[in-house]
# Entry
Amino acid sequence: MSGVNIQGLSIKFGHNEVIKGLDLQVHEGEFLVLLGPSGCGKSTLLHSIAGLIDVSGGSIHIGGQDMTHAEPAERGIGMVFQSYALYPTMTVEKNMSFGLRVARVPKAEIARRVDKAAQMLQLTPLLDRKPAQLSGGQRQRVAIGRALVREAGVFLFDEPLSNLDAKLRAELRRELKLLHQTLGSTMVYVTHDQVEAMTLATRIVVMKSGVIQQIGTPAEVYERPANLFVAGFLGAPAINLVPARVAADGVSLEGALPLRLAAGRVKPGQDLVLGVRPEHLRLQDDGRWRATVQLVEPMGNHQVVWMQLGEQALSVLVHDGRRIAMGDVLGFDVDESQLGVFDAASEQRL
# Structure
């Protein structure tokens, strides 16, 4: 088991700087998820750890050793890609053991490692099958098993579940989490799927345009986002972002939600954005505001109700099973203890 320490990392493709002076510490034994939209640099960062991309500046240490310019085979890592990349003419056992056979690991040791990984991933009955005889989920398990048999210090996952359907993704998410708990290995996982990030991670790194926006536990980045980008990226349905302006008294807010803030936090005339997650809006007859229902989305165990308050659209999560129809006028209130306040100019949390 090894940690990863990245300092001042810079990666350029021609004149385009994809990663910009990035610092990141991956602790031993943690499940770190790199989260962000397509093109934010998360896969590029992962590939630089693996040694698949040359860095322009900075350093990468794995297990305390400088691996900045080391070959991939020297880094002590196991990697799982989005594509299964299995050899179609080889059995599951041969696919899992291929790298060990190339490295001339003794046959008895290969058998031990393959058997151990196959048991963990429920592949033992499938060892004599070929990839064409497997489902998509089983093929991805084989790809994961091929990485596990290396008994590496760090495991890297590059969107390994994105080619699977929703049911298989949920199953493999659980298996990956249980696998991490069993092995206690250091794992770095890339995804653009916030559900994967929230369910798998011990810490999440949110990235945008090659720059880290926030690092924290799933609860921290969801409940106290550092800026508007993080606030808007996490959450389904998305957080309600409501423009506001501080009145002359320095505490009252003008806008769709005329609340009051603690004195000294803001300045008169300052433009703000209020962040209110849908679960922190409460429908109640005696609420301070009334809004008109525009749309109702039944979600099984809850409803997402979209309301119009003046020119502001708001989404609310409703769990009590009440019947709500388009055109209803409903009272609601805000849980102010959960309110996020952001400066409109800097987009940073206040």
